[in-house]
Amino acid sequence: MKSTIKKIGVFTSGGDSPGMNAAIRSVVRTCAYMKIECVGIYRGYQGLIEGDFKPMDARSVNNIINKGGTILKSARCDEFRTPEGRATAHEKLKAEGIDGLVVIGGDGSFTGALIFNKEYNFPIMGIPGTIDNDIFGTTFTLGFDTALNTVVDAIDKIRDTASSHNRLFFVEVMGRDVGHIALNAGVGAGAEEILIPEEDRGLERLLESLKRSKKSGKSSSIVIVAEGDKSGKNVFELKEYVEEHLPIYDVRVSVLGHMQRGGSPSCYDRVLASRMGVKAVEALLEGKTSLMVGVRDNELILTPIEKAIKGHTKLDKELIRVSDIMTT
Ligand code: ADP
After folding, report:
1. Residue with CA nearest ligand 1 atom 22
2. Measured between alpha carbons, how far is 41 from 212 in angstroms, rounded to an integer?
3. How far apart are CA 132 and CA 108, in angstroms?
4. Is residue 132 annotated as part of the catalytic site, yes or no?
5. What DSSP string describes 43-104?
6. Which of 70, 76, 101, 174 to mutate to test the pocket of ligand 1 (most atoms within 8 A of CB)?
7. 41 pairs with which residues across the strands?
């Protein structure tokens, strides 16, 4: 069947993540390969409403595969949450002749795209771009692997100073609702304890573990704390709590913050972005819509966006066990 889609718009929306540029590049080049037009939409839904469009060809995306952030910029846009805002967006798309959209973003961006699809029967395809890895329907989101490498690198450096001064460090990493970054980077960097939003294992356990490690002769300790951990205390309150109960420890806090979102994407994220971009364009050309491209067992899969935004990602139980064994 010959596709009716002749012009695809691509944009990045919500929180940025490393690998978004590689995905834009892939969408643009796949369109060029398929001999259909491609338009870059700036600043997510805001640019869609304002008609901030730029035609893109294979050469428009030279030398961006290695760059963090997004050349199309990202934005949050309240106007798109209103029927009037979406009507304006639809007018702009019609005027430009765009008849399919690839949205690179997180679940908020996907929710907006799905509502738009339902209102205007407009073909949309999603690529999950977020460092949090919190989207159902894919084992990896774009940017997660890069963020892990960034966090592990930062913790390695913190460990150097921690062990020189016999200190205990609490390192806060991103993850309000999910502990994927904390758990994976914690295991990768050899953290003493990992506190995550999914589980409250109690502060007593933390104190016991720290006591044990002091007794066993450990010279320094790193505890990873996800932003949304369930202990009920933020990272600074945790420091006070431990200093009060275990005065033998000299505790320092490091909040890694936005540096976790930046940087050149890892090879894994670049390859994944390239694969997802091809799959997204191909799926649109096959007449599919309202799906998200994901990866499972290294195969690309398509999941209904409705499921992707409603489903929950689960932490790897086996990795929690590994982490427990490693901190013995
Ligand atoms: P992310 O995609 O990273 O989860 P946000 O949750 O901030 O980021 O969503 C990005 C944008 O998607 C919002 O600024 C808004 O324009 C759009 N969006 C999110 N939720 C909705 C919704 N329920 N209806 C319409 N648009 C939405």
Report:
1. 112
2. 55
3. 13
4. yes
5. THHHHHHHT-EEEE-GGGGTT-TT--S-TT-----SGGGSHHHHHHHHHHHHHHT--EEEEE
6. 76
7. 53
Please tell me if the CB atom of residue 99 comes closer than 6 angstroms to any atom of ligand 1. no
Q: Which residue has the tokens 């609702």?
A: 177
For the chain, domain boundaries: 7-143+265-310, 144-261
Q: Which amino acid is at 146?
A: T
Reported as a pLDDT band with limits 50, 70 and 90, residue 1 is low
Q: Return the residue whose CA atom lies nearest to atom 19 of ligand 1.
A: 108
Fold match between domain 7-143+265-310 and domain 144-261: yes
What is the fold, at CATH topology level, of the domain defined by 144-261? Answer: Rossmann fold (3.40.50)
Q: 65-83, pLDDT tens digit by residue?
A: 999 999 999 999 999 999 9
User: Measured from the CA of 76, which atom of ligand 1 is nearest?
Assistant: 14
| pTM for this predicted structure | 0.96
CA–centroid distance, 266 to ligand 1, in Å, is: 26
Of the residues 16, 52, 132, 134, which is catalytic?
A: 132
Class assignment of domain 7-143+265-310?
A: alpha beta
